[in-house]
Amino acid sequence: MHIPHDSFVLVADGRKSLFFRNEGDGAFPNLRAERKEVRDNPDHHEQASDTAGMAMNVIGGHGGSMTEVDFHQLEENRFAADTAAMLEERALRNEFEALVIVAPPKTLGELRKHYHKAVEQRILAEVPKDLVNMPVAEIEKILQAQ
Prior knowledge:
five-stranded mixed sheet; two-stranded antiparallel sheet; 24% strand
């Protein structure tokens, strides 16, 4: 993948985001960390106080289970929305002209729901991979091979 010099590269998942700027050239990325954000997001069972209950249908007398809220997933979605908002702010301040986003498919889908037009116009590529815990040199190699 060709990543122009000075482009932004976001590597994220549902609880961690890494922002890099490409200080290399288009063919050989040299990613330099610019910002890191990590949120504590325990597993759902550690956040929920109870399991979902039962609802009784008064008219028919039949009961049914209520859907349990996945607090872990809600927080991951909130993190993606906040990350997209940060990208919007920086795009509107013209802090980057080109953007590559690397995230697992689920996170990528959630980010897309919140892209501002100024961000969408700058996206060069979206890479549906979970690379957030990889060393920077490995991320560079993977992006170069795309």
